[in-house]
């Protein structure tokens, strides 16, 4: 491996002789100035599946090309030594190879000849691995009006929330200027958003609302059978705290058993504790009605099994990635092998290090079940055209 032009011998990076194994902490940030991408000189990821699955892959690839080709995208490059020109050309050439190759093997040989592979610095800053979780667009039951059964709203973006030009949250506009937007607990306790015409839809219980907030989108099945669709509009700018982690820390759930099923079970058994634990997450998510599929942080539609969410302060937006892990599984258990080319098109509240990534798994109950149990270790690779090709 190397950080682009600075050679770092692989043996030195991975040496562990006479050193006790370090506990893996996927939430550890990289040291200041450390590389998030390391040049990979090991075995190539398997590329033939991308050619066989090109019809499925192509829509996501086209969306990355669409975004990267915008003038606005230039603002986010260079990053990790990758220029805007190189990022765009890498996507365009990959599309050409998918369309022009006569078979999977010739496609793979061309990619290996023309591209350089980089690996995420991972949890240890040395390529040690990434923790993959899953997210989805759940289908929830709800109502367009408040009822006794459906009393927990999803809210639209309030007009007093101020964003910066890059979409990040600046705060709340008040008569005295801009101040931090209230945390979830304050919003709920003070009914900060109620009565302002911001309610978009009402859900059955606070856990359904929590699921929508965590995933950043939801399709809601209304009593008349119609499906209302809602996508991510923004947040209050507060830090995200994992409900599952809080439940484990408090001894309510055991590590390795946390998923949507066990969280729902806990909520049914301890309804008096739900508000307290939910409010430990200060972040509050706002929604907007949509048609089609939800959009990620690049404002392009996400694609089930092809969109990846990473920390966009570290990794190049829209880039080709290769995910090498297994699904489904919880806490690193064996499951179905999951090796595929994806596109880095989104981010997430919990995805804030080089050791984390989130796989968008699609829409509906199966995707929700899979997302709720996906917590697996693997490797994350990036593909860019060689400078010397």
Protein model, in words:
Helix 3 (54-68) packs antiparallel against helix 4. A hairpin with a 2-residue loop joins strand 1 and strand 2. Helix content is 26%, strand content 27%. It starts with a strand and ends with a strand. The protein is an alpha+beta fold. The protein contains eleven helices and 19 strands. The chain has a six-stranded mixed β-barrel with strand order 5-18-15-17-16-19, surrounded by four helices. The protein has a six-stranded mixed β-sheet with strand order 7-11-6-12-13-14. It folds into two domains: 34-135 and 298-385, RlpA-like domain (Barwin-like endoglucanases); 139-289, Barwin-like endoglucanases (Ribosomal Protein L25, Chain P), CATH 2.40.240. The protein has helices at 10-14, 48-52, 54-68, 84-100, 104-114, 184-189, 206-215, 243-249, 260-269, 274-278, 365-373; strands spanning 2-3, 6-7, 37-39, 115-120, 130-137, 139-143, 152-155, 161-163, 169-174, 177-179, 199-203, 218-221, 227-235, 285-289, 307-309, 320-327, 336-346, 356-363, 375-385.
Highest-level CATH class of the largest domain: Mainly Beta
Shape label? globular
Low-confidence stretches: 1-18
Please give the domain count.
2
Give helix and strand order, one letter per element, not per position.
Answer: EEHEHHHHEEEEEEEHEHEEHHHEEEEEHE
Mind describing the biggest β-sheet?
Answer: 6 strands, mixed, barrel
Q: What would you report as the Rg, rounded to the nearest angstrom?
A: 22 Å
CATH fold topology of the largest domain: Barwin-like endoglucanases
- Helix coverage percent: 25-40%
Strand order of the largest sheet: 5-18-15-17-16-19
Structural class: alpha+beta
Average predicted confidence as pLDDT: 91
**Strand percent estimate:** 25-35%
Query: Do you know the CATH architecture of the largest domain?
Result: Beta Barrel
Number of strands: 19
Distance between the termini: 19 Å
The tally of helices reads 11
CATH superfamily of the largest domain: RlpA-like domain
